[in-house]
Amino acid sequence: MKLLKFLPSFVCIAVFSLLLPLQQVRADDPVPTDVRAQFFKLCDLAAAKVSDENSKGPFFIDSYGVRALCVAYDMTGNTNYLNACREWSLRMVRYQDQMIPRGAYYMHYNRKPGEKTNDWYAADSSSIGMAVLATAVRCHPPEQKLFIKSAKKFANLVIKNYVKPSGGVSDGLWHRSSDAWWCSSGLFGSFMFNLYANTGDKHYLKTALGITDWLNHWDLTKDQPFPLSQQGPAMIMYVMENYSAGWPYITQDDNRKQAAMAKVAWCFDWINEQQQKPLADRQWQPTVGWGMKFGGLPFHQYVFSRYLADEKYAAGDAELQRLAPIAFADDPSQLTQLPFFMLMSYAERLDPGDIYRSK
Predict the structure, then answer these.
(1) Which positions ≥6 away from 220 have C-beta within 8 Å?
(2) Could you give the C-alpha distances from 63 to 128, 232, 291, in angstroms and in order?
């Protein structure tokens, strides 16, 4: 069923499914038997990768594995998972201490520690910040305080310099544009909701809700840097991060809730349309580039299955089953973006809500 088709009445009765008890939604949705085994196989590979200081690739990709490993630790008590997250997060803090501007995270590409030139992005750094926060929750002082302090440094840098009066967020030191942008807004908004949950600082919540208001009125189909026609699942995945992280706060205001419900409905309508197509027929192939973000879309379907009484669990399960043969083909130790984003989806399926654990 397409949510968008029912939007006029949907707005009028927006409370129809909000905060539906999790048990009601999940009662008829047992976890497929292979999901747990696939999750922990990828966790073991991801733990080895993020622990390796010589590992290559952008840190924002690692960050999704780190957040999933935090959930794996909660589920099992396996300290190998937590230690991998600690080592990775400590590395992020060491690099951060050397970055210009102060408070920036090193992305493992473009601007390096100590450099004053080259691009630096608030969007990818927000993903890194969320992983540092997730690690902090599982640690004891003094590391917990160290990681929270690191997250605050990054937050204050972006709030001071890149959050616009409109509420949207520009992508840091990006040579292409200094305007508010969908990716940096979606990801920094998610980070702000997470930071508020861990600190109780209402300034962070106010910033996050301002970003949400901007996203609620942003046309995702308009001509813009890296438009939907090019980014496809990447745009939807990152924009939805703001809503998945912030839904309990967003829905406390009726007007904001209605606008957000409309945006979420639009995004899920787009996801549903894509997932109805065989993988070979999709414009974005999940083996390359932006198409790898298809692995993260079930995460949002699972999150909202805790709020909306529809069949998003079944749709998310079906998509993971379609993607698993790719993620586990040949040599899965050569982790690409696809399995890292799938890790988030697996984590939410197996331990609902723990990705956003605070305190």
Answers:
(1) 182, 228, 235, 236, 239, 266, 267
(2) 5, 21, 18
User: Which residues face 163 on adjacent strands?
Assistant: 169
List of residues 6+ apart from 159 with CB closer than 8 A:
203, 207
Of 156, 133, 155, 154, give the one whose Cα is nearest residue 145. 133
- For 128, residues 6+ apart whose C-beta sits below 8 A from its C-beta are 59, 60, 63, 92, 105, 107
pLDDT at 29 (0 to 100): 66
Per-residue pLDDT of 278-299, as tens digits, reads: 999 999 999 999 999 999 999 9
Q: Are 184 and 123 in contact (CB under 8 A)?
A: yes
0.85 cut: is pTM over it? yes
pLDDT in tens, 216-267: 999 999 999 999 999 999 999 999 999 999 999 999 999 999 999 999 999 9
Lowest mean pLDDT among 91-100, 171-180, 228-237, 307-316: 307-316
Q: What angle do CA 65, 67, 69 make, to 5 degrees?
A: 65
Q: Enumerate long-range contacts of 277-281, CB under 8 Å, 24 or more apart.
A: 279/322, 279/323, 279/326
Sign of the torsion angle spanned by Cα atoms 214, 109, 129, 97? negative
Cα–Cα dist 242/151, whole Å: 17
How far the first Cα of the chain sits from its last, in Å, is 38
Which has the higher per-residue pLDDT, 284 or 5?
284
Amino acid making up residue 249: Y
Lookup: tokens for 124: 């990818």
**Assigned token pair, 55:** 């590992």
278/280 Cα distance (integer angstroms): 5
Cα–Cα distance, 221 to 229 (Å, whole number) = 8
| Structural domains in the chain plus CATH codes | 3-356 (1.50.10.20)
